[in-house]
Amino acid sequence: MIKTYVDQLGNSITLEKPPVRIISLVPSLTELLYDLGLEDRIVGITKFCVHPYHLKSTKEKIGGTKKVQVEKIRLLQPDIIISNKEENTQEIVETLQAIAPVYVTDINTINDTLHVITDFGKLFGVRTQSQLLTDKIEHARADFSRFMEGRPWQRSAYFIWKEPYMVAGKGTFIDEMLKLNHFSNIYEAREERYPEVIPQKMRIQGDPEVIFLPSEPYPFKDEDAFELGRFTHHAKTVFADGEMFSWYGSRIVKAFVYFKELQERTTEPV
């Protein structure tokens, strides 16, 4: 029976049966597919798909998230390709649509993630697994919300790159995770999602109390923490697990556990 699905950009995808050959161009969604019990259906992943680790040796690697090997993808004969508006270019999506249906995700909030998990349950015929996972995420979010009650808000800056320095701005998934942790974003007034910034201006642009230096996509070092800290009034500089702030999907369950520990490191007792 032919079924039509709509991705998060409003594109229609028509399938005759649940896909059995899946290519994922998104690391966090590769992990999600695995956690939904779809490991045997995954035939291709990017070189950045590092969770779970063993997939690197059992699945075909089809390039990166910004540059894919189109012919290798064609030879894998996928039934569907999973992509993301931010991680993959429109050119990649349009090129691959000639090979197989491409489901494009657009995830900026936890609710967007829950939408995708529900969609995957329908797409791949794993509704029970997807419902269990959405319930788990909802429970973890509610538990963390109770944990955060009464905790103070702190001004923050979350850096993602150096040379030039770039930060996570408003409307990003990272920004949502910051706010759940009661970290306001001093750069939320900027229009860009990932604006370039001049660290020397941090004091007059919001003077963060906490500076986050994540483990990805840029490998920040101690000297970066020292340099950035000089441009604030005694901000705490925190090396953070970037996956916990930026990987949407099943990683969110682990993120809430991580955030409780992070709160102990960054927040003074009330």
What profile does the largest beta sheet have?
5 strands, parallel
Distance between the termini: 58 Å
Output the number of helix runs: 10
Structure classification: alpha/beta
Question: CATH superfamily of the largest domain, please?
Answer: Nitrogenase molybdenum iron protein domain
- What's the overall geometry? globular
Mean pLDDT: 96
Report strand %.
15-25%
Percentage of residues in helical conformation: 25-40%
With strands numbered from the N-terminus, the spatial order across the biggest sheet is 5-4-3-6-7
Number of strands: 12
CATH architecture of the largest domain: 3-Layer(aba) Sandwich
The first-level CATH class of the largest domain is given as Alpha Beta
| Annotated CATH topology of the largest domain | Rossmann fold
Low-pLDDT parts are none
Could you give the order of the helices and strands?
A: EEEHEHEHEHEHHEEHEEHEHH
Number of domain units: 2
Q: Taking Cα atoms only, what radius of gyration do you get, to the nearest Å?
A: 20 Å
